[in-house]
């Protein structure tokens, strides 16, 4: 076992049925019971996307892996919000 193996954190990633590009990382598969009710109401029905083994050297496209690991260990979940997108068009006119 390498140092990286000993530092891995399993997680399950679910996408929101209500908000595009919103994802919920869980420390335990299908463990929604302890999540805040308001979060689940806004998130909608979770749909499993993938299972990952996180470690400090792993790259995540839009999240800091250390923050995700910390949230999984302390809260049991991590919420990835959609990126702030700015449209290039307003009423058909370019900006």
Automatic annotation (TrEMBL):
Residues 9-94 form the YcgL domain. PANTHER family: PROTEIN YCGL. It comes from Sedimenticola selenatireducens. This is YcgL domain-containing protein FHP88_06170. Pfam families: YcgL. The lineage of its organism: Bacteria, Pseudomonadati, Pseudomonadota, Gammaproteobacteria, Chromatiales. HAMAP family: UPF0745. Gene3D superfamilies: YcgL domain (3.10.510.20). It comes from the Bacteria. PROSITE patterns: YCGL.
């Amino acid at each position: 076992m390498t140092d990286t193996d000993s530092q891995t954190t399993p997680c399950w990633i679910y996408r929101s049925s209500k908000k595009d590009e919103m994802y919920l990382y869980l420390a335990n598969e299908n463990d929604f019971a302890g999540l805040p009710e308001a979060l689940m109401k806004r998130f909608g029905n979770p749909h499993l996307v993938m299972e990952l083994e996180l470690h400090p050297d792993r790259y995540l496209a839009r999240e800091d892996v250390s923050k995700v690991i910390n949230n999984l260990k302390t809260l049991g979940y991590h919420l990835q919000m959609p990126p702030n997108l700015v449209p290039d068009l307003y009423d058909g006119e370019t900006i």
